[in-house]
Design a protein that fits this description.
There is one protein chain. The chain has about 170 residues and is α+β, with helices and mostly antiparallel strands. About 35% of the residues lie in helices and about 15% in strands. It has helices at about 1-10, 15-20, 35-45, 65-70, 80-85, 85-90, 130-145, and strands at about 95-100, 105-115, 150-155, 160-169. The strands form two sheets. Strands 1-2 form a two-stranded antiparallel ribbon. It has a two-stranded antiparallel sheet with strand order 3-4. The termini are far apart.
């Protein structure tokens, strides 16, 4: 039952519980939550409960290089920086499922599936140590000067690779 699922997921907000119980159509109960395999298996056995897997973007060094990397919106679509310019490669293409449905819109039978493209990894030439140095230096410059903005770029003169890039504010 819905109550069992909500209890299992530790959702105790009465407003959410009542709203979910009233719904007859697709209702997203929880998003952006990582589940253990045993939780997935338990939830898959419950009639009317469907699990959707979503890709997320991972930033291992938090805000370092953040202005260049950019960010994504809640739909995981790149909105600025590299996230925007390389969005399709980073996101991949979704799997498409064609199915028949009943009069209430519930899926009955899968007719056809087409596999999507997996997201690609993007490798940058930026050096973590050099980027940290550049960002610290630019913060000091902005704080100790009368400038409204500062920026910097550090290149490898032999290869042309970008080793550090930033601007403030």
């Amino acid at each position: 039952s819905v109550t069992n699922v909500l209890n299992y997921l530790h959702i105790s907000n009465p407003t959410i519980i009542n709203e979910v119980k009233k719904r007859k159509k697709y209702t997203s109960i929880v998003s952006n939550r990582e589940l253990f395999e045993k939780d997935k298996q338990y939830l898959k056995k419950i009639e009317g409960i469907f699990l959707e897997e979503k890709w997320i973007r991972y930033y291992p060094h938090a805000s370092l290089l953040s202005k260049t990397l950019g960010f994504v919106g809640h739909e995981n679509k790149g909105l600025s920086g590299i996230e925007y310019f390389l969005d399709e490669q980073l996101r991949g293409l979704p799997e498409k499922i064609l199915y028949h449905q009943d009069a209430k819109g519930r899926p009955l039978k899968i007719d056809q599936r087409s596999k999507g493209d997996l997201p690609e990894n993007i490798t940058l030439t930026v050096s973590k140590k050099i980027q940290e140095f550049l960002e610290e230096t630019l913060h000091e410059l902005l704080k100790n000067s009368r400038s409204n903005a500062v920026g910097g770029l550090i290149l490898d003169v032999h290869s042309g690779e970008i080793l550090g890039i930033s601007h403030l504010p």
